[in-house]
Amino acid sequence: MSRMLLTLKAVPTIAVDCSPLTPDRLAGQSAAAIAAIELQSGNRRLPTGELFDIAGESSDVLVIRNACSKLDRIGANMNGGSLEVEGDVGAFLGAGLVSGRIRVSGGAGAFAATGMAAGILHVCGNVGDFLGAAIAGDKQGMLGGLVIVDGDAGDRVGDHLRRGIILVGGNAGDYCASRMLAGTIAVRGRVGALPGYAMKRGTLLLAGAAELPATFNDCGTHELMFLRLFARHLAGVDAAAARFAPHGERVRRFVGDRANGGLGEILVAA
Amino acid sequence: MIINGVAIDDTFAEAFGMRATRLIITAANLRWAYYAANAATGFATSVIGCGAEAGIEHELSPAETPDGRPGVSLLIFAVSAKELAKQVERRVGQCVLTSPTSAVFSGCDGEEKVALGKNLRYFADGYQISKLFGDRRYWRVPVMDGEFICEETAGVVKAVGGGNFLVLAASQMQALLACEAAIDTMRKLPGVVMPFPGGVVRSGSKVGSKYKALSASTNDAFCPTLRGIGSSELPPETGAVLEIVIDGITEADIRQAMRLGMQAVCAIGAAGGIQRITAGNYGGKLGKYHFHLREILA
Fold first, then answer.
1. What ipTM goes with this model?
2. Does the reported pTM lie above 0.90?
């Protein structure tokens, strides 16, 4: 399989905006042309060739090797193709992702998947705060697509989430699903303080019992058939998503955040 | 052409372009899936008076349905996508939403769509919940037995309505038994429904009427009790005529259903009182599709 290979030469001292390096933007470009693409780093613009060794051939598969947490905005606004990152990445991973698939073998920083509209973002390690959340000034967080985090997620997962699915394999921090507007978040581990804080709509699916805000009201235990549709959908995406498919439809349903008239739901597997 | 003593007329059935959708109804068990499906496809024998022609296509095992429960697929036909949308909304709203444990999904793709949950969700009075999984949107409508799950829209396809053949027999019961045999065979086929009660119609019609208010009236040429009037097409030995009308997703679906249906009738043959098979048409000027009986049986 053909692919384009970018290998980071050394860890930069200042964070680098890697958003120009997506498979759709590099498609059809020669190694020399790619080497000349300038990347913003602090107040300087550095040619890609100065930071990365460039190998391989033009392809809709782009591999970034030796990645580190200084590489911000990887896959931002990417529209198609497949981006595979070996190592950790910085903030704003997959921000505004339009379509395509991003897989990071390590962890990611804050605001991963913010503004993401579609596609699949898979982080094998942990992610920082504000996963799929709105950046300051935005009224809505992630707008669609599927995010899979195998490890833990920081605080404010899905803050202002508008649409799409976020799956967290480990634990999630405080204020998980805060101010959520719609969409689905599933956490297999524990959640921190005040999950669903100021939630308006949407679903937070928890594998185990959690301490919920007093402003979530108990609606009792029910068999919810949509969870089977959810499970079947995840099973149809890939193996990474299939691990999150709920095993049963029986859940205890809490609705809130009633402090602000919200009709969101926290479903706790029963 | 004579098959097993049954004369096959050198004529054709004339059918029309329609719009159709396939819905999948599931429920806790088949019994309740059938209650919903039977109600939703009820009063849907002819577009002339019912607005739609509909029927149950076949049963679905849990492995074949979107939610893993037993179900049935049904086909609904109408003269236009607009009329189909109206019929689907009414039928699903009154007959499926209301039926315990039911859920309804789109059973076919098409560029055109008719609304399912897109409009029915408003029954939930603001408590409806949308779930978008992949490219499929589902609506969760809180109801008294839990949640009614309903896909946002169903695909609309171009379809064919009005395939038909008429069975002429020595007696009413012989015509009926032959049609029952035909329907038993035809019901096993995908992509077609026979919308009349039991799949069989006895009130075949002609275009026009002596009464101004009516656009169609009894097919006097095939009424055995009018044999002496003069316009009759029935010989003295014919005691009854019954018709089977077929709506299908494609022309080929109807052709196959007509073939197997007529073969079942011919298998009973002259020994069972079957005399002749013919078909209804309007001279070939109105319908886009012509199903020539002899070609189909050749």
1. 0.92
2. yes
